[in-house]
Specification:
296 residues; alpha/beta; Immunoglobulin-like; Rossmann fold; 2 domains; eight-stranded mixed β-sheet; five-stranded mixed β-sheet; 17 strands
């Protein structure tokens, strides 16, 4: 399992009965989590001192109960800063488990920049379904030129704010509001190539013009399409999945099958997790598939 264990501004204190108790930069939130099917005893001294609680509705969705929480606040991870706020659909604008992938990508980019030298071309990264830009900020901080693509204009605006918060307002980041598949198709026609691709596709979603995305139906074709915008010796590919029931081995098979005829490198796919303070266990938070290219 890839474990994001280096956080200072984020921690899972406890989890039980379908919920997790988290600390986000000093603010404690209780949010639902479908993986937490156990019902261990909740310590009232921990669970009663909270700033916000997201309650599921029996009719679907849910709503926040706010006790004492600012409209927007921020957390930091190894020099990267991110704004947070409670979304109507339980999220805060950041997936902290992805920090383990940020570390991996930053290291690869830094090594490649050293290999290319000061006069070499920048490492070009394409971030698809890029959300609020956690991976964009991480890669840009390592010196990459990032193309950030998301269908939601509000999320792209938020990503720009996160970049500025991290001191990267002037970094070579290109922000695109578009359907990811259509953008990749245009990049193929333009003859544009990238050293690395990140994708964080939703289980289900709609593009800006109503395009429907279903992960199980569309992922294979989409990844196959993306192979056509990779340079001959790609640095890495990262696929994240939060779809319940989609095993890491599925991501491994997709990456391994689609890269083996074209590129030299290795594939590794595992669950991604966050440590839980009270139990000492690790909470699974989806899966990541990684392709790492062989450098010559």
């Amino acid at each position: 399992m890839f474990i994001a264990k280096d956080w200072k501004d984020y921690r899972i204190i406890d989890c039980s009965g379908g919920e997790k108790l988290e600390d986000w930069g000093g603010y404690r939130l209780v949010r639902p989590d479908p993986q937490v099917i156990w019902r261990t005893e909740k310590d009232k001294t921990l669970w009663s001192r909270i700033n916000g609680h997201y309650h599921r509705s029996e009719k679907g969705g849910g709503q926040w109960e706010i006790m004492n929480l600012p409209e927007v606040w921020s957390v930091e991870y190894k020099g990267l800063k991110f704004n947070l706020k409670p979304f109507s659909f339980k999220h805060t604008g950041l997936f902290p488990e992805q920090a383990v992938n940020w570390d991996w990508m930053r290291e690869l980019i830094s090594k490649e920049r050293t290999r290319r030298g000061s006069d070499g071309n920048p490492v070009k990264v394409l971030n698809l379904f890029a959300y609020t830009g956690g991976a964009t900020v991480a890669c840009a901080s390592a010196g990459a030129a990032v193309t950030h693509v998301d269908a939601a204009k509000g999320m792209v605006t938020w990503a720009k704010e996160n970049a500025a918060l991290s001191g990267l307002a002037d970094a070579p980041i290109r922000y695109i509001v578009d359907d990811c598949a259509k953008f990749v198709e245009r990049e193929i026609r333009r003859g544009n190539f990238y050293d690395a691709i990140i994708m964080d596709p939703p289980s289900y979603g709609r593009g800006p013009k109503g395009e429907i995305w279903k992960l199980e139906e569309n992922l294979w074709d989409f990844v196959a399409l993306c192979m056509n915008v990779l340079c001959p010796e790609p640095l890495f590919i990262l696929i994240n999945s939060y779809t319940t029931g989609l095993a890491p081995s599925v991501l491994s098979y997709i990456l391994g099958t689609l890269t083996k005829e074209r590129f030299s490198g290795t594939v590794d796919a595992q669950e991604v997790g966050l440590p839980v303070e009270k139990s000492g266990l690790v909470l699974p938070c989806g899966s990541s598939g990684r392709f790492e290219g062989t450098r010559k």
